[in-house]
Amino acid sequence: MASLSLPFETKYLPLKKFFNIYRRSMEETEEFWAEEARQLDWFKTWDKVLEWEPPFARWFVGGQLNASYICVDRHVKTWRRSKVAIYWEGEPGDVRVLSYSTLYSEVNRFASLLRRAGVTKGDRVALYLPMIPELPIFMLACARLGAIHTVIFSGFSAQALADRVNDVQAKLLITADGGFRRGKVVPLKEIADEAVALTPSVEKTIVVKRTGISVSMKPSRDLWLDDLLIKAASFIEPEPVESEHPLYILYTSGTTGKPKGIVQSTGGYLVYNYSTYKWVFDLREESVYWCSADVGWVTGHSSIVYAPLAHGAAIVMYEGAPDYPTIDRWWDIIEKYGVTIFYTSPTAIKMFMRYGEDWLKKHNLSSLELLGSVGEAINPEAWLWFYQNIGGERCPIVDTWWQTETGGIMISPAPGIECVPLKPGSATFPLPGVDAAVVNERGEPVAAEERGLLVIKRPWPGMLLGIYGNPERYKKAYWSTFPGMFYTGDYAVRDRDGYFWILGRADEVLKIAGHRMGTAELEDAAVSYSQVAEAAVVSKSHPVKGESIIVFAIPTEGSAPSVSLKKGLSDHMRRVVGPIATPEEIYFVSKLPKTRSGKIMRRVLKAVANDLPIGDLTTLEDETSVEEIVRSYQELEKEREEKK
Ligand code: PRX
């Protein structure tokens, strides 16, 4: 056992199978990944498994493949052609079931109309769609042509959409007339029109009819999908692309106001997701896999589209709100489609905990075999509730840690290899191929039970290719904190058994209901309000959402703090970023605590908002700012208590 090269100590060496595979992945990395890659269909085998010119990695160099071929074509050549690929349910209750052969014909038809619209290899296509089957079909159709899709979450505002479309310079935008959410129609086409007025690169818009609401169509620019489909061809040859050809660009928040366009490769990403979903979820062609995330986030990219379809599994896709029209909507879906694997977020679990168990008793959830959690740390109480009430004390829970940048799951139990004893709240161990460590500020490993920063010490196939159009930002954000190590931005700790526990972000990034938002992005939105001169945003811990947004704002000269100013600012932030940016609380102050060099001390604000000790203030420029903030916070808290 002495030769076992693990990046961590563990007493779980009896888990021979898992640790032997892990050891092999560390010692014979290239052979290990080559074996995994061989499980997919390549048009041309790679010449070299890895080309590592730090910090840029290229996987399966010289290999050629096509993501739509892997997710669709290869299944229609087998018995899977007639099995279900997608069970889709709309919020109003309409259902569509697509077999692999139907999915195949739709992907081809959609690819043909994209080609007709002039889309070719390397073009960027923006997708601003609700959770309808057309979204994965368009993603796969783009991939079929070698075009790069960028999905923009349909909850984002016109401005957020425009910023992302401008960054990728998309020439085509695909949207819908609207989408259903909580019984109402979200007017996506109207929002898209507002965005397109700001995006000169967009030449054409394709519109999917989902809700039937009337929308304005600009004759030379806007095209209905249904009209285009009339002339669609039934087959389009999948374009063989190089392994490192970008499959998609997906925006995520960082520490500056400008979101980062994370670029993913085709070969590395697919191999990584194919393998990790097999290990983590024991995903098989007979699985009925439901990930409740939106396709607009990385979880949806991997867990709704690419990994389950690469495996030939059936996915469940649901359009609407989790508790609409009744609180048991999700449990009804699990029962109706016989979901075997259910992957969701701690926020959703905590929300359902509050509704109680009676809603669950109406449903037979015995089809479930495995549960998963993602997006934020799961507290032991929620973990146990999930385990007992949803999983019937039968299903293991995989707490999966990963990021948009990692492309796939990095730290998680792997029951598809071997069941590790679970500890509620711990993501357990790094997966094979993942060289994770917890280090101190100097990059040295910390001792067990000491908090440190989570880093990854070697490349893995799902690693981002870079930040779109900005190699310098890529180097700075991920590789400059600790040279030679990928910086995740998360705090973590290993316990004495070697288990990893993720403790939250170490940078200026918030996790609101598992969604990532940068404080800088939110502050930019706040100060763009005409009556706000300066603003600082911090998070406050929230019993359901994990974190919530707290704004400290200085009104402009002549604007007095008032309820209507508060509402105006809140509405403005929703409009600029989207409903996820709605502040939980807004405090108006006349000064913000700053260091002598002018940096806002968010730590101080965070401590005030969370009722924690304020700590060292020696670098503070003006102590009265803190006094005022504490006072205004306390006054508002008192008002709130009185109202209760
Ligand atoms: O802070 C970690 C948290 O989510 C961040 C990544 O956010 P995003 O790129 O939006 O991707 C989310 C879904 C893959 C991480 O830096 N996070 C994600 N999963 C977990 C988690 N924190 C604790 N436990 C997890 N299982």
Topology:
Elements: H1 16-27, H2 29-37, E1 48-53, E2 56-61, E3 64-65, H3 67-76, E4 84-89, E5 95-99, H4 100-116, E6 124-128, H5 134-145, E7 148-151, H6 158-168, E8 172-176, E9 179-181, E10 184-186, H7 188-196, E11 204-208, E12 222-224, H8 225-230, E13 241-242, E14 246-252, E15 260-265, H9 267-281, E16 288-291, H10 298-311, E17 314-318, H11 329-337, E18 341-344, H12 346-355, H13 358-361, E19 370-374, H14 380-390, E20 397-400, E21 436-439, E22 452-456, E23 466-467, H15 471-479, E24 486-494, E25 500-505, E26 509-512, E27 515-518, H16 519-527, E28 532-542, E29 546-555, H17 563-576, E30 585-588, H18 602-609, H19 623-643
Parallel strand pairs: 4-17, 6-7, 6-8, 8-11, 11-12, 16-17, 16-18, 18-19, 19-20, 29-30
Antiparallel strand pairs: 1-2, 3-13, 4-5, 9-10, 14-15, 15-23, 21-22, 22-24, 24-25, 26-27, 28-29
The structure holds adenosine-5'-monophosphate-propyl ester (PRX).
Adenosine-5'-monophosphate-propyl ester is lined by residues 252, 298-299, 374-377, 399-404, 427, 488-490, 502, 505, 511, 516.
